[in-house]
Amino acid sequence: MNYIEVTFDITPYEEAVADALISELGTIGYDGFSYTDQGFTAYIPAKDYNAQAITRLEIFDFFTRNYRIETSVQEIEDQDWNKVWEENFTPIVVDDRILVRAGFHAPVPGIEYEILIEPKMSFGTGHHSTTALMLRTILDNKERITGKRVLDMGCGTGILSILAAKTGAREITGIDIDEWAYNNAMENIRANGLNNITIKIGDARLLEAEAPFDVILANINRNILLEDMPHYVARLLPQGLLIMSGFYLQDLPLIQERAAQSGLTFMTYREDKNWVAASFYKN
Ligand SMILES: C[S@@+](CC[C@H](N)C(=O)[O-])C[C@H]1O[C@@H](n2cnc3c(N)ncnc32)[C@H](O)[C@@H]1O
Fold it and tell me: Which residues are recorded as binding S-adenosyl-L-methionine (predicted)?
């Protein structure tokens, strides 16, 4: 599969603007991102690329009033992609406790949790605030996860499923609509030597056939969370934990309102660069 690489140069550069654009691009089919000094590059399968789709985004229009945003486009061959991604993928340590690295990076002695990721075209390397917030929140809730059945909606690379397994979850189901994510998550699960994670391709409609979960993780985006939250709650056991991310601090009240309507009680949230991971339990 060939990919289109779109480079975004933002002047003056602000990471929050790059993050906001990345989040919106994720909703129109872009599924790989890497930061540059002046912005970021975004990747989309060539078959899904539509030049106008970017300029039609409300947020793009909004930012171009205050920032100069220049885009350049090139098509890249499938075999080039892995090389590009490998070169851009640096190991990351979250809170001195979790190391996320590729097999070709050196291990860090004494680290509590190590997650191996094959750098490919899937979201979930720990570099994005939402992933790091989710990883931290999983550790905050270790006692509620150990021995339990966990769902990871929008699993991407499977990074959250892998940490859940390493904190002692009994069995984990990861679901993602993207086939790349499915393939990459499967590779990563193997690379981490885990045998209690099942990955499925699909969306919330798959949940009807699932037995209830003790814990649900969902790092997707505001609109999908608002739409699918009732389906998540329907598959959550009473007192079960739902941790959601992929939205901004200003959207937290909207998420809390939908959560209350869906039968959840708000517990707490973590925030980084205006992104939020919020925790709720089922009444
Ligand atoms: C922000 S990424 C999160 C990846 C990873 N869980 C993490 O925390 O880094 C969101 C993922 O959700 C997937 N996704 C988008 N819409 C979805 C939906 N309706 N149902 C399931 N997965 C979805 C995307 O393909 C993407 O891999």
Answer: 131, 154, 176, 219
- Residue 210 dihedral angles phi and psi, to the nearest 5°: -95, 145
Tally of domains within the chain: 2
Exposure letters 144-176 (e unless 16+ CB within 10 A, then b): bbeebbbbbbbbbbbbbbbbbbbbebeebbbbb
Indicate if the pLDDT at residue 204 is higher than 90.
Answer: yes
Is the complex ipTM more than 0.90?
A: yes
Ligand 1: residue of 150, 175, 177 to mutate (most ligand atoms within 8 A of CB) is 177
Query: Which residue's alpha carbon is nearest to atom 25 within ligand 1?
Result: 178
pLDDT digits (tens, 9 = 90+) for 104-161: 899 999 999 999 998 776 667 878 889 999 999 999 999 999 999 999 999 999 999 9
154 annotated as ligand-binding: yes
Domain for residue 209, yes or no? Answer: yes
Question: Tokens at residue 60, please?
Answer: 């793009």
CATH number of 258's domain:
3.40.50.150
**Do both 141 and 68 map to the same domain?**
no
Residues with CB under 6 A from ligand 1: 122-124, 130-131, 134, 153-156, 159-160, 175-178, 181, 203, 219-220, 224, 246
Q: Are residues 139 and 255 in the same domain?
A: yes
Window from 73-82, 88-97, 105-114, 272-281 with minimum mean pLDDT: 73-82
42 lies in which domain range?
1-77
Q: What is the mean pLDDT of the chain?
A: 92
Looking up residue 72, the CATH number of its domain turns out to be: 3.30.70.930
Quick check: pTM over 0.90?
A: no
CA 195 – CA 177 distance, rounded (Å): 22
Q: Of 29, 61, 77, at which residue does a domain stop? A: 77
148 in the same domain as 57: no
